Each structure stands twice: as structure tokens, then as C-alpha cells.
Amino acid sequence: MNLTVNTPARTGQSEPVRAFSVSAAAVFAFASDLWHTADFSLTKRRLYVIIVTVCGSSLHSSLFFRSISEIKKENAGSALRPAADNKEGQHMPQLKIFGTLCGEQKQEQKQEQPSVQETDPSAFEISGTVLVKYTGSDTEAVIPDSVTEIAADAFLGCKTVRRVTVPASVTAIHSNAFRGCESLREIILPDSLTHLGSGVFCGCTALSGIRIPAGITAIPDGAFAACPSITEIRIPERVVKIGKHAFFCCSGLTSVTVPASVTELHRHAFGECSALTEAVLLGGIPYLFMAFSNCTGLKRVVLSPGVTEITCAFSGCTALTEIVIPDTVKKIGWSAFSGCSSLQHIVIPESVTEIDSGAFEDCVSLSEVELPADVRCDSSAFLNTPVAARFAEQGLTAD
């Protein structure tokens, strides 16, 4: 067994930490000599601490067990008491193993907060003020303050970086800049940022710590797609557009609130977010199309006035039990709620004039529906539901 010992750099010097190894046998040899020449119990207690710390409980030598016995005899059982119960122990020095095996001097350990070190400038390919490519292999990348834009594909597929700090000088991060950075856990984005490109963080499977800056007005296509470690996200109140597949397959996301500023929510924006249980849409989004399809954990949806058409928006949301359709909705399009197998009751407001094919198809628990008197309902709108036969009797058809 080898013991690796770290040697700290001298004060005022910046030399790297050195390490050397000593064998357990050498430690025992030194300890044995010291033990037999020691005349006072405090040194032996220190020696025992060294033996236990260095050698561990897995080395069963006679010296190890003899030291325990002798310590108990010489100190009447007080040697192993906590320092708070032992006056002499209160002043026992902290034995550290640095260049020498043991030190009799009490060592003051000053803990300092780790400082953020600038990344080697050679790891960045910069053209003017644009970061074109990162070629480093460090786990942390601190982008230089001279950079104002991060080019497309700059960190594409980087497997080592875990944390990135983007300076306040940066205003734009372009398409796929961090795509496929599988080890990236945290990225610090400045408030100066106003533009994100499509697919910018797509496939960052470890990414969990991220704050979208307040200056962002659009979350582009695929921006955070396939980021399963994101559990929560706050969408800034200046955002007006959430692009297609923006949060697609973010399987760790549990809830989302879309602010009132958003007027465009594109297809599959939150599709396949299997852990999502609640979605609150505060804005007047006229057309909801496939936005939450196959969110199998989604139970509750709140829609604000302003929505006029719902098409395939909640298809495959098998856990959905609660949704209120606002009275601004005029059309429930094809497959709007198809496959919502837990939905038992739905109220269609008087504003709705058309229910398209398969709108509630395969809602196998749907036993109660309130319909407006003059609605135009396709014959397959409630296919494979408990209410289908009753509606057929009432002559609710598309003709």
C-alpha cells in the first residue's frame, strides 16, 4: 500500500503542489522507533493518531494493537476522549503529513474560497470580437471579456467542459454553439445577452443550472431540446415567441408558466416532457398546435383568454384530468385531446362552433361532455369514448 502525500507550495510562491509516496512499512518503522523512545503519553497519543490516520483500520500489525493497549494503560482510558473532555487534549496539535512525516507545530489552516481561474487564452480561437471555436479540454471555461459574440458551433460536441462563464460583453450566442456538450452542467449567461440561436443547448444532457436572461425576446427552435436534467425554467416576461421543439424532450421539467408576453408557441415546444405535471399559459396565444403533445405526466392545464384554436395540442397527455377551455376558443381541431385517457369531464364553451375529427378520440374515460347547442361536430370527434354512442344517437355529425 502506498500513501500519497501532498506538499503545499511555500507562501508567496506559485509553484504547483508536489506529491510523493511512502510505503506503509516505512511509516510503521518510524512509528515503532518513536514509540519506544517516547517518555510521555501525549507523544504516544499523537503517534496513535498518526498510525490510525496513515495506515487505516485494514492494517492489523502488532504495533497498531499494542499502541491501543499501552495508551489505555498509561492514560487510564482518557487518551481517546474528545478534546473537549480532556484538558491536555485541548492543546493537542493537529498533526499534518507534509514534507516531513509528522509536525509538532500547530498548523493554522486558512480556508480560502476557490477563485475562478481564467482559461488558457490559446484554447479560444477569436476573430475580432467573435469567439469562433473553443479547443480546450478543461472542465471549466471562462470566456474572455473581449468577446461580444459566440459563433455557431463554437463549443459543438465538447465532451469535457462542465461549467461555462459568459462575460457581460456578450450579446449573442449563435446556432448550435453548445450543442451536444454532454458534460455541461452549468452556464452563466449575462443580462446583456439578447440573442440565442437555434439548437444552442440542444443535447446538453447534464445541463441543470441555467437562467434565461431578461433581455431575451425569443426562445428559438430546439434551444433546449433533449436537456433531461433541467427541472425548472423561468421564461422571461419579454419573450414573445417560443420556437418549435424549444424544450422538446426535457424529461425532467416538472412545471412551466408561459408569460403573458408570449403570442407564439410553436409545435412540440414542450412535447415529450414526460415529467411535466402542470402548464399555465398566461398569454393570449391564438393558435395552440402540438405544443404539449405526449406529455404523459401532464395533469393540469390553465389556458388564458385569447386562445382561438386548439389543434393536436394535448394529444397523448394520458394523465390529463383538468383543463378549462376559455370562451375565446372557436375551434377544437383534429386530435386536440386524442389519447387523453384519464380525462373524465370536459366543458366546451358556447364560443366553439367546430370540433374536428379525432378531437377527443381514445379518451377512454370521458363519460361527461357539455356541448354548445349549435356546434358542428365531426362524427369521429369522440371515437372510442364512452359518450360516442350517445352523440351518434343525437345526430351530432359534421354535416
- Please give the order of strands in the largest beta sheet: 3-4-6-8-10
Number of contiguous helices: 4
Strand content: 15-25%
How confident is the prediction overall: mean pLDDT? 79
The second-level CATH architecture of the largest domain is Alpha-Beta Horseshoe
Give the total of domains: 3
Might you state the CATH topology name of the largest domain? Answer: Leucine-rich repeat, LRR (right-handed beta-alpha superhelix)
Helix percentage: 10-25%
Say which CATH homologous superfamily of the largest domain is assigned.
Ribonuclease Inhibitor
Low-confidence stretches: 1-116
Radius of gyration: 33 Å
Q: In words, what does this structure look like?
A:
The chain is of the alpha/beta class and 399 residues long. The protein has three domains: 2-91, no CATH class; 119-216, Leucine-rich repeat, LRR (right-handed beta-alpha superhelix) (Alpha-Beta Horseshoe); 233-399, Ribonuclease Inhibitor (Leucine-rich repeat, LRR (right-handed beta-alpha superhelix), Alpha-Beta Horseshoe). The protein is built from four helices and 24 strands. Helix 1 runs antiparallel to helix 2 and helix 2 packs antiparallel against helix 3. The longest helix is centred in the N-terminal third of the chain and has 15 residues, at 41-55. It starts with a strand and ends in a 6-residue tail after the last helix.
